[in-house]
Amino acid sequence: DTGVSQNPRHKITKRGQNVTFRCDPISEHNRLYWYRQTLGQGPEFLTYFQNEAQLEKSRLLSDRFSAERPKGSFSTLEIQRTEQGDSAMYLCASSLRQAISGNTIYFGEGSWLTVV
Amino acid sequence: AQTVTQSQPEMSVQEAETVTLSCTYDTSESDYYLFWYKQPPSRQMILVIRQEAYKQQNATENRFSVNFQKAAKSFSLKISDSQLGDAAMYFCAYTQIQGAQKLVFGQGTRLTINP
User: Fold this and answer.
1) Cβ of A106 and B100 within 8 Å?
2) What is the mean pLDDT of residues B66-93?
């Protein structure tokens, strides 16, 4: 068990460029989440997958954001035409849904995005 | 919508002493989970302790314990015998039992440990 892995850890991009982040969850986990965290704030939910199905998206996720989880394994979060307001840390988390006792959510180290 | 409030942006404590971090939340649900997460600088978010709302007994994990007051919607974290490695941002979080179980976080409390 290597934990939740995110790449790249840091990305600096020019406004208007596209960026993509990758998340590799813990191998047996069927649930995967993306959160966004700005400096000095708590993380905010963006979207959630159960296996390969994207089941919920926050209103924070504008049309410029798209997330995928092909084959229910790794996930990608793409931001098109980046804006300075997109600068934040993007956190990925995963969990194993257990019917009775609920689940513990494990986080990756995050991907920092700076839009200049 | 559920909300989580942490009213202490910063706290400090002397090494080996005890500190309590406050958290209040708002929900119309009767059953849910509450969590405290720790986020050291440039490190990943780690689960510290978890409480199921249907359990009256307060959760305890070694030096970490909670005071869960369901009627008051209060969920404080007590850290005993504080250690330098406890320095971090601490986030209180809530999740529903059903559905996506997405976490709703508070704004965080930055804890400093003074040697």
Assistant:
1) no
2) 97
Position A76 scores a pLDDT of 98
- Contact yes or no for B44 and A105 at CB 8 A: no
* Structure confidence at residue B41 as a pLDDT band (50, 70, 90): confident
DSSP character string of B1-19: --EEE---SEEEEETTS-E
- DSSP-derived letter for residue B91 is E
Which of the four pLDDT bands, split at 50, 70 and 90, describes residue A100?
Answer: very low
Given CB atoms, is B97 within the 8 Å cutoff of chain A? yes
| Mutation target vs B (from A7, A29, A36, A107; most B CBs, 10 A cutoff) | A107
Q: How far apart are CA A112 and CA A99, in angstroms?
A: 34
Question: What gap in Å lies between CA A73 and CA B112, rounded to an integer?
Answer: 38
